[in-house]
Specification:
Helix content: 25-40%
Distance between the termini: 9 Å
CATH class: Alpha Beta
Shape: globular
Low-confidence stretches: 1-5
Mean pLDDT: 95
CATH architecture: Alpha-Beta Barrel
Bound molecules: 2-phosphoglycolic acid
CATH topology: TIM Barrel
Number of strands: 8
Order of helices and strands: EHEHEHEHHEHHEHHEHEH
Structural class: alpha/beta
Radius of gyration: 17 Å
Number of helices: 11
Strand content: 15-25%
Number of domains: 1
Largest sheet: 8 strands, parallel, barrel
């Protein structure tokens, strides 16, 4: 039970980005081995989003374990002439149960708009995947005092209208906190997550009350417990610190103290 009294099972998801070869399976297996025991007894759901090339191989090893797998992006269409792209259905077929959409690196590197992100989230739902929808302000936007407007605007435009707590997770990731070692203060995180919660409830009612809102951006073993204890923070999207099983597990274990 979180601080607000809502019963939301937290999710700690590792985003490996463009890192990892077949040999990295050992890290995923170390996470799996440390999480032995009944799923319900774990303090949080645990997910790894490796590069798409590794999903099927990881699924073969992790399939019956509590470690869930996710893709890092998908194409809006189920199939077709889109060289180099990957459909949500393909991720599902390879063994993923979720896909990250709208990560700021996709928005920046590939010019993805919130409308694109929404189409990808709809594709995830069509394929039976959970969509992890990323939103977050740049440093300039924070300095300009427009954080809440930017984040809520992205949320409104990126999230499919019929999203539910079961098929969608929101990830708030301030762009300036990603990979920099910087994080917002707990009070700032509380303000943004509170605003996201209010938006979700206004749009989706009880589904919005139950939807998970992850924090992402320089989550590390030494700041995880503080960040995860903030009201309306229902887990973490972890980049760099998810590449080493020991660091990632230390973040998962932050939940034993919250
Ligand atoms: P980071 O990345 O933990 O390395 O800051 C987070 C993310 O981009 O999801």
């Amino acid at each position: 039970m979180g601080k607000t009294g809502r019963e939301i099972r937290p999710l700690v998801a590792g985003n490996w980005k463009m890192n990892g070869l077949k040999a990295s399976l050992g890290e995923a297996m170390a996470v799996r081995d440390a999480l032995q025991g009944p799923l319900a007894s774990l303090p949080a759901e645990v997910m790894i989003a490796p590069p798409a090339t590794l999903i099927a191989g990881f699924a073969a090893e992790l399939g019956s374990s509590p470690v869930l797998l996710a893709g890092q992006d998908c194409h809006p269409k189920p199939s077709g002439a889109h060289t180099g792209d990957i459909a949500a259905e393909m991720l599902k077929d390879a063994g993923a149960s979720a896909v990250i959409v709208g990560h700021s690196e996709r928005r920046t590197d590939h010019g993805e708009t919130s409308a694109d992100v929404r189409a990808k989230a709809e594709a995830a739902h069509r394929a039976g995947l959970v969509a992890i929808v990323c939103i977050g302000e740049t440093h300039a936007e924070r300095l300009a005092g427009s954080t809440l407007a930017v984040v809520c605007g992205q949320l409104e435009e990126s999230m499919p209208e019929l999203s539910t707590a079961a098929n969608t997770v929101v990830a708030y990731e301030p762009v300036w906190a990603i990979g920099t070692g910087l994080t917002p203060s707990p009070d700032d995180v509380k303000d943004v997550h509170g605003a996201i919660r209010a938006r979700l409830v206004a749009q989706l009612g009880v589904e919005g009350e139950a939807m998970r809102i992850l924090y992402g951006g320089s989550v590390k073993p030494d700041n995880a417990a503080t960040l995860m204890a903030v009201e309306n923070v229902d887990g973490a999207l972890v980049g760099g610190a998810s590449l080493k099983a020991s660091d990632f597990l230390a973040i998962v274990r932050a939940y034993e103290n919250v």
